[in-house]
Amino acid sequence: MDFRYTPEQADLKRRAAAYSQLLMRYEDQSEQAGGPLPADTVKELTRAAIDAGVYAINMPKDLGGAGLSLLDQVIVEEEFGKVTNCLWDIPWRPANVLIHGTPEQREKYLLPIIRAEKFDAFAVTEPGAGSDPSSGTTTATRVSGGWLINGEKWFVTCGDIADFLLVQADAGPERAATLFFVDKQAAGVAMTRVPHFMHSAVNGHPEFTFTDVFVPDADVLGGVGNGYELTKEWFTDERLMIAARTVGAAERALELARDWAVQREQFGAPIASFQLIQGMLADSAAEIAVHRAYTHQVAWEADRPETDRKTLHAKASTAKLAASEAAGRVIDRCVQIFGGRGYDRSYPVERLYREIRVDRIWEGTSEIQRLIIANELIKRGTRALQLPTH
């Protein structure tokens, strides 16, 4: 196995890192504002992402996207993960399942996103349906020419800036899980609350209600009854990207903590000379190295058509679970190394500490990842998760 980046991948990493450095200039402004940045600033940063080739990285070139492989995307997202305040949402990543739309749906929904004219948001979670999406109560009732959507969705990431939502609802008396395109301006759609969460993110995670919202048959994505499979496909990619971003977040925290430990003196010597500090630095470096390697391996496998998709789903869960929990440990140590300054919001390690916590919750909690992994182990044995697909 050759783990070296190709010249193209090395250049991609350089461009992603440079763009991330640009985003970092706006971290303090975002934090002071509680998250949002001025619209003109977002437009400028969007244009810079497009120019850098790190916008719509998961979409094919023939549709106007960057056309990156999943491994290439992991390389980019790892750099993005070093940025606080979720500013990595600005270089937009359309929901991967939009590629399954009809030509008309692509023209109406996907292409404007790739051109940075519109934004999408995925609406799955409900007040009573989080880890168990099958317990959702949002329904789609058949009417002439389409469907009436009724229900409620929570934690709709970027729903505040989205132009349309991908809403999972149970269609018809069979309760067939289905994804529907829902225009946010449609009659009966209401954004009821934008909660204030632990982190100060550039975009929000609002709650929506749907009251007799009419959706025409032309706005069903992937056919009636295919909602779970499409959502699962979306989760697989998103969990891999979370793994990559948490590795990047941990790496930035460690870089900052290392530099601080070298320059900070106590008892007449740099604290980097103290073995307890050295132990924290070493443990952090080891965890980052291991989880970067595994995340890269899974992304590499995902790019190969011979890879079993069910096993891949479990491996993406493994990457997310392990990397997100390791990042929490790493950043916790880094806050400790900084001492009181690590508790100051003007320091990136403090923001990283708050922001990394949600990665053990969204796109499937750590507990759900463990169930997915255990189920794969029981069905296929240990080798399925441990070895690359040949």
Task: Fill in the keyword field for this structure.
390 residues; eight-stranded mixed beta sheet
Task: Write up this protein.
The protein has helices spanning 7-24, 27-32, 39-52, 70-80, 103-114, 227-263, 275-302, 309-338, 348-355, 366-380, 383-386; strands at residues 120-123, 139-143, 146-153, 164-171, 176-183, 189-193, 207-216, 220-221, 265-266, 269-270. With 390 residues, it is an alpha+beta fold. Strands 1, 2, 3, 4, 5, 6, 7 and 8 form an eight-stranded mixed beta sheet that branches. A hairpin with a 2-residue loop joins strand 2 (139-143) and strand 3. Helix 8 packs antiparallel against helix 9. It is globular, with a radius of gyration of 21 Å. The relative contact order is 0.11.
Unreliable stretches (pLDDT < 50, length at least 5) are none
Count of DSSP strands? 10
Q: Based on helices, strands and strand pairing, what is the structural class?
A: alpha+beta
For the termini, the CA-CA separation is 12 Å
Report the portion of residues in β strands.
Answer: 5-15%
Alpha plus pi helix count: 11
Any idea what the shape is?
globular
The average pLDDT is 96
Element pattern in H and E: HHHHHEEEEEEEEHEEHHHHH
User: For the report, how would you describe the main beta sheet?
Assistant: 8 strands, mixed
Oligomer: single chain
Rg from alpha-carbon coordinates:
21 Å
Percentage of helical residues?
40-55%
SSE order and pairing:
Blueprint: H1 7-24, H2 27-32, H3 39-52, H4 70-80, H5 103-114, E1 120-123, E2 139-143, E3 146-153, E4 164-171, E5 176-183, E6 189-193, E7 207-216, E8 220-221, H6 227-263, E9 265-266, E10 269-270, H7 275-302, H8 309-338, H9 348-355, H10 366-380, H11 383-386
Parallel strand pairs: 1-4, 2-4
Antiparallel strand pairs: 2-3, 3-7, 4-5, 5-8, 6-7, 9-10
Helix pairs in contact: 1-3, 1-4, 4-6, 4-7, 6-7, 6-8, 7-8, 8-9, 8-10
